[in-house]
């Protein structure tokens, strides 16, 4: 498989998941100019123009982080329960992050006004509070095992720290735990972020 990614972007959740799941893959960096590091027009690979995109080896390309993460989990049998409430809670949390949290960072990444950033930071505090209550003292969001929700959460928490958004203690602890995982260390190193 080939993961098209942007260093430190939301694609990082898929990168962590691929490594954690042990799926053979390679990664291809994609620039803001929509060129891949190996010289291709990324718009021809994913006409939506954004990362992540996952080439399933036969030229079939999957997009949307939530779907790619679910595909990685279902293909590997790791990072997501195959049935039952734990599966739906993990998907629920991942959807919450991909829709309700991710977009709140837009004013920070796209040169929003101070007022827009302050408003977004307020909403982020509320959203992170919800996730923090769900996490509590558990090692991972859904329980004892890491799931795709933790991969996504890692990226959202990293962005929050980068943008100076204060995190509840449970979430800063979660971020610190994730940073120590071999899969996360490898991901950051491969993305040139260490
Ligand atoms: N709906 C997409 C959004 C992906 C997305 O926002 N990707 C960002 C990086 S975090 C990107 O590539 N932005 C570049 C652009 O939109 O031109 C998903 O959930 O995967």
Overview of this protein structure:
- This protein has 194 residues and is of the alpha+beta class.
- The chain has 2 domains: 2-77 and 183-190, Glutaredoxin, CATH 3.40.30.10; 85-181, Up-down Bundle (Glutathione S-transferase Yfyf (Class Pi), Chain A, domain 2).
- It has helices at residues 11-21, 42-45, 65-76, 85-101, 106-109, 114-135, 148-162, 169-179, 182-190; strands spanning 2-5, 26-29, 53-55, 61-63.
- Strand 1, helix 1 and strand 2 (26-29) form a beta-alpha-beta unit.
- The structure holds glutathione (GSH).
- Glutathione is lined by residues 6, 9-10, 49-52, 64-65, 98.
The 3D shape can be described as globular
CATH class membership of the largest domain: Mainly Alpha
Largest sheet: 4 strands, mixed
Number of domains: 2
Strand order of the largest sheet: 2-1-3-4
Low-confidence stretches: none
CATH topology of the largest domain, which one?
Glutathione S-transferase Yfyf (Class Pi), Chain A, domain 2
The total strand number stands at: 4
The small molecules bound here are:
glutathione
Q: Count of helical segments?
A: 9
The radius of gyration over CA amounts to: 16 Å
Q: Which CATH architecture of the largest domain would you pick? A: Up-down Bundle
Structural class, from secondary structure content? alpha+beta
Measure the end-to-end span. 24 Å
Helix residue percentage: 40-55%
Strand content: 5-15%
């Amino acid at each position: 498989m080939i993961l098209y990614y942007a260093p430190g972007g939301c694609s990082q959740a898929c990168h962590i998941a691929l490594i954690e799941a042990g799926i053979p893959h390679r990664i291809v960096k994609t620039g803001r100019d929509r060129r891949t590091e190996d010289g291709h027009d990324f718009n021809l690979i994913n006409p939506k123009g954004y990362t992540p995109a996952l080439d399933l080896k036969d030229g079939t390309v999957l997009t949307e982080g939530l779907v790619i993460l679910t595909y990685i989990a279902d293909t590997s049998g790791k990072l997501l329960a195959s049935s039952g409430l734990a599966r739906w809670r993990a998907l629920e949390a991942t959807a919450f992050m991909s829709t309700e949290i991710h977009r709140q960072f837009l004013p920070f990444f796209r040169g929003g006004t101070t007022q827009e950033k302050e408003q977004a930071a307020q909403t982020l505090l509320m959203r992170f509070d919800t996730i923090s209550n769900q996490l509590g003292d558990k090692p991972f969001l859904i329980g004892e095992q890491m799931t795709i929700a933790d991969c996504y959460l890692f990226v959202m928490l990293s962005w929050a720290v980068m943008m100076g958004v204060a995190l509840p203690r449970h979430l800063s602890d979660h971020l610190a735990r994730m940073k120590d995982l071999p899969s996360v260390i490898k991901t950051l190193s491969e993305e040139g972020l260490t």
